[in-house]
Amino acid sequence: MEELHDTTGSKVNDFKEVVRGFSEILAAENKALQEYDTDAVSQLYEKKSKIIAAYRSMVAYFIKHQEELSTLEEAERIELKSISVNLDNLIKENEQLLKTHMETSQNVMNTIINIAKMTNNSNATSYGAQGRYSPLDNNKNALAINRTL
User: Fold this and answer.
1) DSSP assignment, residue 133?
2) Residues 101-120, buried b or exposed e (16+ Cβ, 10 A)?
3) Residue range 22-38, pLDDT digits in tens
4) Which of 67, 58, 47 has the alpha carbon at shortest distance from 13?
5) Which residues pair with 127 in a beta bridge?
6) Tell me, what's the pLDDT at 72?
7) E strand or H helix at 72, and its extent?
């Protein structure tokens, strides 16, 4: 029984460390997103990917071994709940910020495409079915956009 408690204590400490690391990365990413610092966001990507894998592994372990959590002292459970709630709040904020930035990028891209289409249509030449110049029938001109987001 003592060995089980040592393993649980070790796993709980590992979980706390992973959650704190994940929280720090999310806080930094959220700050970078709020400041529109895409370089900082991209620099955090690799760390974020690794910590997410560790977090998922720890969560999977505790899902499989829920009985071990019931052996923890009340103070320990309260601390785990507190850091987990904090992480959940950071995840929700991060999700909202990422969604907002992606939608904004999409709207900017759509605006650029629409302006390019209007400019292309107003300046394009076209010939009608009878072989005559027809600037009014130029809605089918080709337009290519290289999209990289």
Assistant:
1) B
2) eeeeeeeeeeeeeeeeeeee
3) 999 999 999 999 998 98
4) 58
5) 133
6) 86
7) none
